[in-house]
Design goal:
50% of the residues lie in helices and 22% in strands. It has 102 residues and is an alpha/beta fold. The protein has a single domain, classed as Rossmann fold, CATH 3.40.50. It is globular.
Length: 102
């Protein structure tokens, strides 16, 4: 089982590669969806790391995977701009999963 990165930034990919994490750099929503679907189907991948910008590009697909599949785990990592409200994202996941608004 291994980590896999889906990033929109070459610098992030290089940093992760130094830590032994392979990945891909994508930009458009079609590329993101294709890379995510391929990573989800790879049985050797346990954790998919995605930058927040890419998660925003295909948020519905990511949320659907998170709710319906146990593995691999999709983890949002901040990109170089770090604009995401992680607390808000967690609240949104809870609301989607069990219908409870915090």
């Amino acid at each position: 089982m291994r980590f896999y990165l889906i990033s929109d930034n070459v610098d992030t990919q290089m940093g992760m590669r130094l830590a032994g994490i392979e990945g891909v750099v994508v930009h458009g929503s079609d590329e993101v969806k294709k890379a995510l679907a391929a990573a989800m189907d790879d049985k050797d991948i346990a954790v998919i790391l995605m930058t927040e910008k890419l998660i925003k590009l295909c948020s519905e697909m990511v949320y659907e995977y998170k709710l319906e599949r146990r593995q691999p785990l999709i983890v949002e990592i901040p990109d170089r701009h770090a604009t995401s409200d992680i607390t808000g994202m967690i609240s949104k996941y809870i609301e989607s999963a069990i219908g409870l608004k915090l």
